[in-house]
Amino acid sequence: MVPVPPAVVQLKAGDLLHVTRAASVQFVTPIMFRLIRVLDRPTFDGWLWLDGYQLNDKGDAVARRKLFVQPAGLRKLSPSAPAPRRTGRQVSPRVPAQPPLVRRDRG
User: What is d(CA 74, CA 17) in angstroms, rounded to the nearest whole number?
Assistant: First the structure.
């Protein structure tokens, strides 16, 4: 049985990560990444495969990615409250209901 590096144990689904060049040379421009899972693939010593979503500045997922990184270069960020999502439907304020028209026969 192979011992699991401490960095692997600390990562869990849902973690928000800041991935920089310290994790891999491909990340000259850092990205935000929401972890789905640590993949169980053979790697070089000190490297990991991660599966998750790249996030934009608003925190929305823009691409599903598999990353090959060094865990020492990952920064865990504290999760913030999710921003309310907007739907395409506009909700108008409620207008009090009008009483039904009553027809009175004159006779």
Answer: 6
Full-prediction pTM beyond 0.85? no
13, 52, 53, 54 from 36: Cα distances, Å:
5, 5, 8, 11
Write the CB contacts of 6 (distance below 8 Å, at least 6 apart in sequence): none
- Which amino acid type is present at position 81? A
Instruction: State how far the Cα of 33 lies from the Cα of 67, in Å rounded to an integer.
Output: 10
Q: How far apart are CA 95 and CA 35, in angstroms?
A: 45
Say how far apart CA 45 and CA 39 lie, in whole Å.
15
Amino acid at the residue 59: G
What would the DSSP string read from start to end of 73-94? GEEEE---PPPPPP-SSPPPPP
Among 27, 75, 68, residue whose Cα is nearest residue 51: 68
Q: Average per-residue pLDDT in the chain?
A: 81
**Per the structure block, which two tokens stand in for 103?**
């027809």
Residue 14 is encoded by which pair of tokens? 């849902």
